[in-house]
Amino acid sequence: MKKRSFVDRFVKPSINASDQDLQRVTRQAIDALKESNSPPTLFLNGDSLVRLESGENGEPRLRKMTVDRMVNELAKRIDWRQTTRNVEVPAKPPRDVAQNVLATPDLPFPHLDQIVRCPVFAPDGGIQQEPGYCEATRTLYCPAPGLEIPLVSESPTGKELAQAKRIIRTELLGDFPFSGPADRAHALCALLQPFVRPMIDGATPLYLIEKPSPGTGGTLLTDILAFPALGTDPPKITMPGNEGELKRMLFSALRDAPTVLALDNLPETEIKSPSLSSAITSTECADRVVGTSDTLRLPIRCLWIANGNNPNLARDLARRCVFIRIDAAQEAPDQRTGFLHPDLKGWARKNRGDLIWAALTICQAWVAEGMPAGKGTLGMFESWAETMSGILDVAGIPGFLENLHERRAEADYGTEDLTLLVEGWFRKFRDRRVCATQLLPCAEHLDLGSEEQSRRICLGQLLSRNRDKKLDKLFIRRGRSRNGSHTWYLEKDL
User: Fold this and answer.
1) Is 305 exposed, middle or buried (0-12, 13-18, 19+ CB in 10 A)?
2) Domain ranges, residue 163
3) What is the CATH number for 231?
4) Which of 158, 211, 448, 451 gives a 20 to 30 Å CA spacing to 362?
5) Per mean pLDDT, which range of 261-265, 298-302, 442-446 is the poorest?
6) End-to-end CA distance of the chain
7) Average pLDDT in the 211-234 region?
Protein backbone atom coordinates (compact mmCIF):
# COMPACT_ATOMS: atom_id res chain seq x y z
CA MET A 1 0.00 0.00 0.00
CA LYS A 2 1.41 3.36 -1.02
CA LYS A 3 1.36 6.02 1.69
CA ARG A 4 -0.67 9.11 1.13
CA SER A 5 1.37 12.13 0.12
CA PHE A 6 1.84 14.75 2.85
CA VAL A 7 2.21 17.48 0.21
CA ASP A 8 -0.89 16.53 -1.75
CA ARG A 9 -3.50 15.26 0.71
CA PHE A 10 -5.92 14.37 -2.07
CA VAL A 11 -3.68 11.69 -3.59
CA LYS A 12 -5.46 8.35 -3.13
CA PRO A 13 -3.46 5.52 -1.61
CA SER A 14 -3.19 2.48 -3.84
CA ILE A 15 -4.14 -1.04 -2.72
CA ASN A 16 -3.80 -4.33 -4.59
CA ALA A 17 -7.32 -5.71 -5.01
CA SER A 18 -5.90 -9.13 -5.97
CA ASP A 19 -4.15 -9.63 -2.61
CA GLN A 20 -5.80 -12.69 -1.03
CA ASP A 21 -4.63 -11.87 2.51
CA LEU A 22 -7.97 -10.47 3.72
CA GLN A 23 -6.69 -9.23 7.08
CA ARG A 24 -3.78 -7.34 5.51
CA VAL A 25 -5.96 -5.69 2.89
CA THR A 26 -8.56 -4.84 5.53
CA ARG A 27 -5.91 -3.13 7.69
CA GLN A 28 -4.72 -1.18 4.67
CA ALA A 29 -8.27 -0.13 3.83
CA ILE A 30 -9.00 0.98 7.42
CA ASP A 31 -5.77 2.98 7.52
CA ALA A 32 -6.71 4.67 4.25
CA LEU A 33 -10.23 5.47 5.49
CA LYS A 34 -8.82 6.92 8.72
CA GLU A 35 -6.22 9.09 6.95
CA SER A 36 -8.74 10.45 4.45
CA ASN A 37 -11.43 11.12 7.11
CA SER A 38 -10.51 14.79 7.59
CA PRO A 39 -12.70 16.69 8.08
CA PRO A 40 -14.58 13.64 9.32
CA THR A 41 -17.63 12.27 7.56
CA LEU A 42 -17.35 8.75 9.01
CA PHE A 43 -18.26 8.43 12.68
CA LEU A 44 -19.09 5.93 15.39
CA ASN A 45 -22.59 6.57 16.69
CA GLY A 46 -23.14 4.23 19.61
CA ASP A 47 -21.75 0.94 18.31
CA SER A 48 -22.51 1.67 14.64
CA LEU A 49 -20.35 3.13 11.91
CA VAL A 50 -22.31 5.92 10.23
CA ARG A 51 -21.77 8.32 7.34
CA LEU A 52 -22.65 12.00 7.23
CA GLU A 53 -24.91 12.78 4.28
CA SER A 54 -27.06 15.65 3.05
CA GLY A 55 -30.73 14.92 3.50
CA GLU A 56 -33.84 16.75 2.41
CA ASN A 57 -33.25 20.49 1.89
CA GLY A 58 -29.55 19.95 2.48
CA GLU A 59 -30.06 19.07 6.16
CA PRO A 60 -27.21 16.92 7.54
CA ARG A 61 -28.15 13.41 8.53
CA LEU A 62 -26.46 10.17 9.60
CA ARG A 63 -26.80 6.92 7.65
CA LYS A 64 -25.74 3.56 9.02
CA MET A 65 -22.96 2.06 6.93
CA THR A 66 -23.95 -0.99 4.92
CA VAL A 67 -21.75 -3.14 2.72
CA ASP A 68 -22.87 -1.18 -0.37
CA ARG A 69 -22.11 2.16 1.31
CA MET A 70 -18.71 0.87 2.44
CA VAL A 71 -17.92 -0.23 -1.11
CA ASN A 72 -18.82 3.31 -2.18
CA GLU A 73 -16.44 4.81 0.42
CA LEU A 74 -13.62 2.42 -0.53
CA ALA A 75 -14.04 3.40 -4.16
CA LYS A 76 -13.96 7.14 -3.39
CA ARG A 77 -10.98 7.07 -1.03
CA ILE A 78 -8.69 4.35 -2.42
CA ASP A 79 -7.13 3.66 -5.81
CA TRP A 80 -7.75 -0.07 -6.22
CA ARG A 81 -5.41 -1.88 -8.64
CA GLN A 82 -4.84 -5.35 -9.99
CA THR A 83 -2.27 -6.81 -12.42
CA THR A 84 -3.56 -8.42 -15.60
CA ARG A 85 -1.01 -9.83 -18.11
CA ASN A 86 1.76 -7.94 -16.36
CA VAL A 87 -0.17 -4.67 -16.73
CA GLU A 88 -1.52 -2.80 -13.69
CA VAL A 89 -5.15 -1.78 -14.28
CA PRO A 90 -7.94 -0.24 -12.17
CA ALA A 91 -10.04 -2.63 -10.08
CA LYS A 92 -13.25 -2.61 -8.07
CA PRO A 93 -13.18 -2.56 -4.27
CA PRO A 94 -13.57 -6.18 -3.08
CA ARG A 95 -16.89 -6.70 -1.31
CA ASP A 96 -15.32 -9.12 1.15
CA VAL A 97 -13.00 -6.29 2.25
CA ALA A 98 -16.00 -4.00 2.74
CA GLN A 99 -17.71 -6.68 4.82
CA ASN A 100 -14.60 -7.28 6.90
CA VAL A 101 -14.10 -3.57 7.59
CA LEU A 102 -17.65 -3.34 8.95
CA ALA A 103 -17.09 -6.46 11.07
CA THR A 104 -13.92 -5.03 12.65
CA PRO A 105 -14.36 -3.95 16.31
CA ASP A 106 -13.00 -0.66 17.69
CA LEU A 107 -12.72 1.14 14.37
CA PRO A 108 -10.51 4.29 14.57
CA PHE A 109 -13.20 6.86 13.84
CA PRO A 110 -14.45 9.72 16.05
CA HIS A 111 -17.45 9.17 18.32
CA LEU A 112 -20.46 11.33 17.45
CA ASP A 113 -23.44 11.75 19.77
CA GLN A 114 -25.31 14.59 18.05
CA ILE A 115 -25.51 16.87 15.06
CA VAL A 116 -26.16 20.36 16.43
CA ARG A 117 -27.28 23.55 14.67
CA CYS A 118 -26.06 25.95 17.37
CA PRO A 119 -22.86 26.46 19.40
CA VAL A 120 -22.69 24.27 22.50
CA PHE A 121 -20.66 24.26 25.70
CA ALA A 122 -18.00 21.63 26.31
CA PRO A 123 -17.71 20.01 29.77
CA ASP A 124 -14.82 22.37 30.62
CA GLY A 125 -16.96 25.44 29.87
CA GLY A 126 -15.53 26.27 26.44
CA ILE A 127 -17.94 27.09 23.62
CA GLN A 128 -17.82 25.10 20.39
CA GLN A 129 -18.29 27.97 17.95
CA GLU A 130 -16.39 26.73 14.88
CA PRO A 131 -18.40 24.59 12.45
CA GLY A 132 -17.36 20.97 12.29
CA TYR A 133 -16.66 18.12 14.67
CA CYS A 134 -15.56 18.68 18.27
CA GLU A 135 -14.08 15.76 20.19
CA ALA A 136 -14.72 17.42 23.58
CA THR A 137 -18.48 17.65 23.00
CA ARG A 138 -18.75 14.66 20.60
CA THR A 139 -20.97 16.83 18.43
CA LEU A 140 -20.87 18.01 14.83
CA TYR A 141 -21.80 21.69 14.55
CA CYS A 142 -23.53 22.43 11.24
CA PRO A 143 -24.86 26.02 11.37
CA ALA A 144 -27.46 27.23 8.91
CA PRO A 145 -26.02 29.27 6.02
CA GLY A 146 -25.83 32.96 6.85
CA LEU A 147 -26.33 32.51 10.61
CA GLU A 148 -24.70 35.42 12.42
CA ILE A 149 -24.35 35.35 16.22
CA PRO A 150 -23.18 38.42 18.16
CA LEU A 151 -20.00 37.99 20.17
CA VAL A 152 -20.56 36.46 23.61
CA SER A 153 -18.55 38.10 26.38
CA GLU A 154 -16.23 35.85 28.36
CA SER A 155 -17.60 37.45 31.55
CA PRO A 156 -21.04 38.91 30.73
CA THR A 157 -21.82 42.18 32.49
CA GLY A 158 -24.99 42.72 34.48
CA LYS A 159 -26.34 44.77 31.60
CA GLU A 160 -25.63 42.01 29.09
CA LEU A 161 -27.25 39.39 31.32
CA ALA A 162 -30.33 41.58 31.79
CA GLN A 163 -30.55 42.06 28.02
CA ALA A 164 -30.24 38.32 27.41
CA LYS A 165 -33.02 37.55 29.90
CA ARG A 166 -35.26 40.22 28.36
CA ILE A 167 -34.84 38.80 24.84
CA ILE A 168 -35.89 35.30 25.93
CA ARG A 169 -38.29 35.86 28.83
CA THR A 170 -40.10 38.94 27.48
CA GLU A 171 -39.66 39.04 23.72
CA LEU A 172 -39.83 35.30 23.01
CA LEU A 173 -41.85 33.83 25.90
CA GLY A 174 -43.69 36.84 27.29
CA ASP A 175 -47.03 36.11 25.62
CA PHE A 176 -47.36 32.56 26.93
CA PRO A 177 -49.72 32.32 29.95
CA PHE A 178 -47.46 30.46 32.36
CA SER A 179 -49.24 29.45 35.54
CA GLY A 180 -46.39 30.47 37.83
CA PRO A 181 -42.66 31.15 38.25
CA ALA A 182 -41.77 27.44 38.22
CA ASP A 183 -43.48 26.91 34.86
CA ARG A 184 -41.63 29.90 33.39
CA ALA A 185 -38.31 28.72 34.88
CA HIS A 186 -38.72 25.22 33.41
CA ALA A 187 -39.54 26.68 29.99
CA LEU A 188 -36.25 28.58 30.12
CA CYS A 189 -34.44 25.38 31.16
CA ALA A 190 -35.88 23.57 28.14
CA LEU A 191 -34.66 26.34 25.83
CA LEU A 192 -31.16 26.40 27.37
CA GLN A 193 -30.60 22.65 27.73
CA PRO A 194 -29.43 21.93 24.14
CA PHE A 195 -26.67 24.54 24.57
CA VAL A 196 -25.27 22.86 27.70
CA ARG A 197 -26.18 19.21 27.03
CA PRO A 198 -22.52 18.06 26.77
CA MET A 199 -21.96 19.47 30.30
CA ILE A 200 -24.68 17.22 31.78
CA ASP A 201 -23.36 13.84 32.85
CA GLY A 202 -26.43 11.66 32.68
CA ALA A 203 -30.04 11.57 31.59
CA THR A 204 -32.43 14.53 31.42
CA PRO A 205 -36.18 14.61 32.26
CA LEU A 206 -39.18 15.09 30.02
CA TYR A 207 -40.44 18.68 29.92
CA LEU A 208 -44.23 18.35 29.97
CA ILE A 209 -46.19 21.33 28.63
CA GLU A 210 -49.71 20.91 29.98
CA LYS A 211 -52.77 23.04 29.36
CA PRO A 212 -56.47 22.84 30.22
CA SER A 213 -57.86 23.16 26.68
CA PRO A 214 -56.91 23.27 22.98
CA GLY A 215 -55.79 26.57 21.54
CA THR A 216 -53.73 27.59 24.58
CA GLY A 217 -50.45 27.33 22.66
CA GLY A 218 -48.83 24.04 23.70
CA THR A 219 -47.57 23.05 20.26
CA LEU A 220 -46.40 26.61 19.55
CA LEU A 221 -44.49 26.70 22.85
CA THR A 222 -42.91 23.33 21.99
CA ASP A 223 -41.69 24.73 18.67
CA ILE A 224 -40.53 28.05 20.14
CA LEU A 225 -38.50 26.43 22.94
CA ALA A 226 -36.67 24.30 20.37
CA PHE A 227 -36.22 27.04 17.77
CA PRO A 228 -33.08 28.82 19.04
CA ALA A 229 -31.17 25.52 19.06
CA LEU A 230 -32.62 24.08 15.84
CA GLY A 231 -33.67 26.97 13.63
CA THR A 232 -36.73 24.91 12.70
CA ASP A 233 -39.56 22.95 14.30
CA PRO A 234 -38.44 19.83 16.19
CA PRO A 235 -39.24 16.32 14.94
CA LYS A 236 -42.51 15.22 16.52
CA ILE A 237 -44.03 11.89 17.47
CA THR A 238 -47.75 11.38 18.03
CA MET A 239 -48.41 8.73 20.65
CA PRO A 240 -49.49 5.55 18.82
CA GLY A 241 -52.08 3.10 20.04
CA ASN A 242 -49.75 0.43 21.37
CA GLU A 243 -46.44 0.12 23.19
CA GLY A 244 -44.68 -1.88 20.47
CA GLU A 245 -45.30 0.77 17.86
CA LEU A 246 -44.12 3.53 20.20
CA LYS A 247 -40.92 1.62 20.94
CA ARG A 248 -40.19 1.32 17.21
CA MET A 249 -40.96 4.99 16.62
CA LEU A 250 -38.67 6.12 19.44
CA PHE A 251 -35.82 3.93 18.25
CA SER A 252 -36.20 5.13 14.68
CA ALA A 253 -36.19 8.78 15.79
CA LEU A 254 -33.12 8.30 18.00
CA ARG A 255 -31.17 6.85 15.07
CA ASP A 256 -31.05 10.39 13.64
CA ALA A 257 -29.21 11.64 16.79
CA PRO A 258 -31.78 14.45 17.32
CA THR A 259 -31.12 17.51 19.45
CA VAL A 260 -34.82 17.70 20.36
CA LEU A 261 -37.51 15.01 20.30
CA ALA A 262 -41.10 16.14 20.85
CA LEU A 263 -44.22 14.18 21.73
CA ASP A 264 -47.12 16.18 20.36
CA ASN A 265 -50.72 16.29 21.64
CA LEU A 266 -50.57 13.59 24.31
CA PRO A 267 -53.92 11.84 24.75
CA GLU A 268 -56.08 12.53 27.80
CA THR A 269 -56.38 8.82 28.55
CA GLU A 270 -53.91 7.38 31.07
CA ILE A 271 -50.45 7.24 29.50
CA LYS A 272 -48.29 4.24 30.36
CA SER A 273 -45.11 3.46 28.45
CA PRO A 274 -42.23 1.38 29.81
CA SER A 275 -40.25 2.14 26.64
CA LEU A 276 -40.58 5.90 26.98
CA SER A 277 -39.94 5.81 30.73
CA SER A 278 -36.80 3.76 30.19
CA ALA A 279 -35.50 5.97 27.36
CA ILE A 280 -35.92 9.17 29.39
CA THR A 281 -33.78 7.85 32.25
CA SER A 282 -31.10 6.32 30.00
CA THR A 283 -28.07 7.67 28.17
CA GLU A 284 -28.31 4.98 25.52
CA CYS A 285 -30.82 2.53 24.13
CA ALA A 286 -30.55 -0.74 22.29
CA ASP A 287 -32.93 -2.63 20.06
CA ARG A 288 -32.91 -5.23 17.35
CA VAL A 289 -32.62 -3.96 13.80
CA VAL A 290 -35.73 -4.92 11.86
CA GLY A 291 -35.09 -7.84 9.50
CA THR A 292 -31.84 -8.88 11.18
CA SER A 293 -30.58 -10.52 14.35
CA ASP A 294 -28.28 -7.56 15.07
CA THR A 295 -28.75 -5.33 18.10
CA LEU A 296 -28.07 -1.63 17.60
CA ARG A 297 -26.99 0.61 20.49
CA LEU A 298 -27.62 4.36 20.27
CA PRO A 299 -26.68 7.33 22.48
CA ILE A 300 -29.51 9.44 23.91
CA ARG A 301 -28.68 13.15 24.22
CA CYS A 302 -31.92 14.77 23.08
CA LEU A 303 -34.14 17.28 24.83
CA TRP A 304 -37.37 15.43 25.66
CA ILE A 305 -40.43 17.66 25.42
CA ALA A 306 -44.16 16.92 25.23
CA ASN A 307 -47.47 18.75 25.25
CA GLY A 308 -51.10 17.86 25.83
CA ASN A 309 -54.46 18.88 27.26
CA ASN A 310 -54.36 17.82 30.91
CA PRO A 311 -52.49 14.60 30.08
CA ASN A 312 -52.98 11.80 32.59
CA LEU A 313 -49.59 10.22 33.25
CA ALA A 314 -48.95 6.93 34.99
CA ARG A 315 -46.74 7.12 38.08
CA ASP A 316 -43.50 5.95 36.42
CA LEU A 317 -43.77 8.53 33.66
CA ALA A 318 -44.82 11.37 35.99
CA ARG A 319 -41.68 10.79 38.09
CA ARG A 320 -39.61 11.51 34.99
CA CYS A 321 -41.21 14.89 34.21
CA VAL A 322 -40.77 18.52 35.04
CA PHE A 323 -43.89 20.56 34.44
CA ILE A 324 -44.64 23.64 32.36
CA ARG A 325 -48.30 24.61 32.73
CA ILE A 326 -49.92 27.30 30.62
CA ASP A 327 -53.47 28.47 31.19
CA ALA A 328 -55.14 31.40 29.40
CA ALA A 329 -58.03 31.26 31.91
CA GLN A 330 -60.71 31.76 29.25
CA GLU A 331 -63.11 29.60 27.26
CA ALA A 332 -61.67 30.37 23.80
CA PRO A 333 -57.90 30.78 24.30
CA ASP A 334 -57.29 30.66 20.54
CA GLN A 335 -59.24 33.94 20.17
CA ARG A 336 -56.76 35.96 22.25
CA THR A 337 -55.28 39.14 20.78
CA GLY A 338 -52.83 41.85 21.76
CA PHE A 339 -49.66 39.79 21.45
CA LEU A 340 -46.25 41.46 21.51
CA HIS A 341 -45.29 39.49 18.39
CA PRO A 342 -48.41 38.22 16.56
CA ASP A 343 -46.19 36.21 14.18
CA LEU A 344 -43.91 34.81 16.84
CA LYS A 345 -42.24 32.22 14.62
CA GLY A 346 -41.51 34.86 12.00
CA TRP A 347 -40.00 37.14 14.65
CA ALA A 348 -37.89 34.25 15.98
CA ARG A 349 -36.58 33.45 12.49
CA LYS A 350 -35.47 37.04 11.96
CA ASN A 351 -33.82 37.22 15.38
CA ARG A 352 -32.39 33.72 15.77
CA GLY A 353 -28.83 35.01 16.05
CA ASP A 354 -29.83 37.26 18.96
CA LEU A 355 -31.76 34.41 20.60
CA ILE A 356 -28.69 32.17 20.43
CA TRP A 357 -26.56 35.01 21.82
CA ALA A 358 -29.01 35.43 24.70
CA ALA A 359 -29.00 31.69 25.52
CA LEU A 360 -25.19 31.51 25.36
CA THR A 361 -24.85 34.66 27.47
CA ILE A 362 -27.05 33.30 30.27
CA CYS A 363 -25.04 30.07 30.30
CA GLN A 364 -21.69 31.88 29.99
CA ALA A 365 -22.51 34.01 33.04
CA TRP A 366 -22.70 30.74 34.99
CA VAL A 367 -19.43 29.49 33.47
CA ALA A 368 -17.71 32.77 34.37
CA GLU A 369 -18.78 32.24 38.00
CA GLY A 370 -17.00 28.89 38.05
CA MET A 371 -19.99 26.69 37.10
CA PRO A 372 -21.35 26.39 40.67
CA ALA A 373 -23.71 23.46 41.24
CA GLY A 374 -27.20 24.65 42.02
CA LYS A 375 -29.26 23.56 45.01
CA GLY A 376 -31.96 21.87 42.94
CA THR A 377 -32.16 18.09 43.23
CA LEU A 378 -34.16 15.53 41.26
CA GLY A 379 -33.74 11.78 41.57
CA MET A 380 -32.46 10.03 38.41
CA PHE A 381 -31.45 13.43 36.98
CA GLU A 382 -28.91 14.71 39.51
CA SER A 383 -26.39 16.23 37.07
CA TRP A 384 -29.18 17.90 35.09
CA ALA A 385 -30.66 19.44 38.25
CA GLU A 386 -27.31 20.73 39.50
CA THR A 387 -26.46 22.24 36.10
CA MET A 388 -29.79 23.86 35.31
CA SER A 389 -30.43 25.17 38.83
CA GLY A 390 -26.89 26.53 38.90
CA ILE A 391 -27.48 28.47 35.67
CA LEU A 392 -30.80 29.87 36.93
CA ASP A 393 -29.30 30.78 40.32
CA VAL A 394 -26.55 32.87 38.71
CA ALA A 395 -29.11 34.47 36.37
CA GLY A 396 -31.37 35.33 39.33
CA ILE A 397 -34.34 33.38 37.98
CA PRO A 398 -36.57 31.77 40.67
CA GLY A 399 -38.97 28.83 40.58
CA PHE A 400 -36.82 25.81 39.65
CA LEU A 401 -38.69 22.61 40.61
CA GLU A 402 -40.96 24.52 43.00
CA ASN A 403 -44.11 23.02 41.44
CA LEU A 404 -42.80 19.45 41.42
CA HIS A 405 -44.66 18.08 44.45
CA GLU A 406 -47.89 19.80 43.47
CA ARG A 407 -47.86 18.57 39.86
CA ARG A 408 -46.74 15.07 40.73
CA ALA A 409 -49.58 14.86 43.22
CA GLU A 410 -51.93 15.59 40.34
CA ALA A 411 -50.27 13.23 37.90
CA ASP A 412 -49.37 10.31 40.15
CA TYR A 413 -52.87 8.98 40.70
CA GLY A 414 -54.02 6.13 38.55
CA THR A 415 -57.52 4.88 37.84
CA GLU A 416 -57.74 2.89 41.09
CA ASP A 417 -57.02 5.95 43.28
CA LEU A 418 -59.50 8.12 41.38
CA THR A 419 -62.16 5.44 41.53
CA LEU A 420 -61.86 5.32 45.34
CA LEU A 421 -62.24 9.10 45.42
CA VAL A 422 -65.34 9.01 43.23
CA GLU A 423 -66.93 6.18 45.23
CA GLY A 424 -66.61 8.09 48.50
CA TRP A 425 -67.71 11.32 46.82
CA PHE A 426 -70.89 9.75 45.44
CA ARG A 427 -71.79 8.10 48.74
CA LYS A 428 -71.49 11.41 50.59
CA PHE A 429 -72.77 13.99 48.10
CA ARG A 430 -74.51 12.10 45.26
CA ASP A 431 -74.89 14.68 42.43
CA ARG A 432 -74.67 17.84 44.56
CA ARG A 433 -72.36 20.69 43.53
CA VAL A 434 -69.41 20.83 45.94
CA CYS A 435 -66.06 22.58 46.12
CA ALA A 436 -62.65 20.92 46.57
CA THR A 437 -62.58 21.76 50.29
CA GLN A 438 -65.78 19.75 50.88
CA LEU A 439 -64.25 16.76 49.06
CA LEU A 440 -61.08 16.60 51.15
CA PRO A 441 -62.52 13.98 53.57
CA CYS A 442 -63.11 11.72 50.54
CA ALA A 443 -59.46 12.11 49.48
CA GLU A 444 -57.67 10.92 52.62
CA HIS A 445 -56.03 8.09 50.66
CA LEU A 446 -54.34 10.60 48.32
CA ASP A 447 -50.98 12.18 49.14
CA LEU A 448 -51.96 15.84 48.84
CA GLY A 449 -49.55 17.28 51.40
CA SER A 450 -50.08 18.25 55.02
CA GLU A 451 -51.43 21.83 54.95
CA GLU A 452 -55.15 22.20 54.26
CA GLN A 453 -54.73 25.01 51.73
CA SER A 454 -52.13 23.01 49.79
CA ARG A 455 -54.36 19.92 49.93
CA ARG A 456 -57.32 21.90 48.62
CA ILE A 457 -55.27 23.35 45.75
CA CYS A 458 -53.80 19.97 44.81
CA LEU A 459 -57.22 18.30 44.87
CA GLY A 460 -58.74 21.06 42.73
CA GLN A 461 -55.97 20.66 40.17
CA LEU A 462 -56.41 16.88 40.22
CA LEU A 463 -60.12 17.33 39.47
CA SER A 464 -59.33 19.80 36.68
CA ARG A 465 -56.95 17.30 35.13
CA ASN A 466 -59.63 14.61 35.18
CA ARG A 467 -62.58 16.78 34.22
CA ASP A 468 -65.16 14.83 32.16
CA LYS A 469 -63.39 11.55 32.91
CA LYS A 470 -65.66 8.53 33.40
CA LEU A 471 -65.04 6.32 36.43
CA ASP A 472 -67.39 3.53 37.55
CA LYS A 473 -70.23 4.87 35.35
CA LEU A 474 -69.83 8.39 36.80
CA PHE A 475 -68.50 11.45 34.99
CA ILE A 476 -66.49 14.10 36.86
CA ARG A 477 -68.09 17.41 35.85
CA ARG A 478 -67.11 20.98 36.61
CA GLY A 479 -69.90 23.37 37.57
CA ARG A 480 -70.11 27.12 37.92
CA SER A 481 -67.74 28.98 40.20
CA ARG A 482 -68.81 29.76 43.75
CA ASN A 483 -67.02 32.53 45.65
CA GLY A 484 -64.15 32.39 43.16
CA SER A 485 -63.72 28.60 43.33
CA HIS A 486 -64.87 25.91 40.91
CA THR A 487 -67.65 23.56 41.94
CA TRP A 488 -67.71 19.90 41.02
CA TYR A 489 -70.40 17.25 40.66
CA LEU A 490 -70.86 13.66 39.49
CA GLU A 491 -73.10 12.77 36.59
CA LYS A 492 -74.38 9.25 35.97
CA ASP A 493 -73.79 7.64 32.58
CA LEU A 494 -77.31 7.11 31.20
Assistant:
1) buried
2) 158-403
3) 3.40.50.300
4) 211
5) 442-446
6) 84
7) 95
Q: Are 281 and 320 in contact (CB under 8 A)?
A: yes
Q: What residue type is 420 in one-letter code? A: L
Long-range pairs, 283-291, Cβ under 8 A, ≥24 = 283/202, 283/203, 284/46, 285/250, 285/251, 285/254, 287/247, 287/251, 290/248
- Split at pLDDT 50, 70, 90, the class of 266 is very high
Structure letter (DSSP) for residue 198: G
127 falls in which pLDDT band (50, 70, 90)? Answer: very high
Total domains in the fold of the chain: 3
Would you say residue 149 lies in a domain? no
Peptide bond into 205 cis (omega under 30): no
Alpha-carbon dihedral angle through residues 81, 82, 84, 86, given to the nearest 10 degrees: 80
H/E element holding 236? strand 236-238
pLDDT of residue 2: 42
**Residue 170 confidence (pLDDT) above 80:** yes
Residue 133 covered by a domain: no
Give the CB-side neighbour count of residue 317, counting CA atoms within 13 A.
Answer: 21
Q: How confident is the model at residue 359 (pLDDT cuts 50, 70, 90)?
A: very high
Interstrand relation of 79-84 and 87-90 (parallel, antiparallel or unpaired):
antiparallel
pLDDT of amino acid 68: 97
Check whether residue 356 and residue 477 sit in a common domain.
Answer: no
Question: Do both 80 and 209 map to the same domain?
Answer: no
Q: Report the C-alpha dihedral over residues 319, 324, 325, 326, rounded to 10 degrees.
A: -160
Is there a single domain that holds both residue 350 and residue 392?
Answer: yes
Which of 41-50, 249-258, 262-271, 353-362 shows the lowest per-residue confidence on average (mean pLDDT)? 262-271
Domain end call among 381, 403, 425: 403
CA distance 264 to 321: 15
Question: Nearest CA to 451 among 440, 462, 461, 442?
Answer: 440
Rounded mean pLDDT of 404-430? 79
* Confidence band of 7 (pLDDT split at 50, 70, 90): very low
Q: What is the DSSP string of 420-451?
A: HHHHHHHHHHTT--B-HHHHGGGGTTS---SS
Do 417 and 362 have their domain in common?
no
Q: Which of 403, 434, 450 is the last residue of a domain?
A: 403
Calpha distance 484→327 (Å, rounded) = 17
At 49, the amino acid letter reads L
Q: Which of 395, 386, 385 is nearest to 365 (CA)?
A: 395
Q: Kindly state whether residues 280 and 376 are assigned to the same domain.
A: yes
Q: Tell me which DSSP letter residue 472 carries.
A: T
* In-domain check, residue 239: yes
Nearest CA-CA partner of 466 in 268, 183, 179, 332 = 268
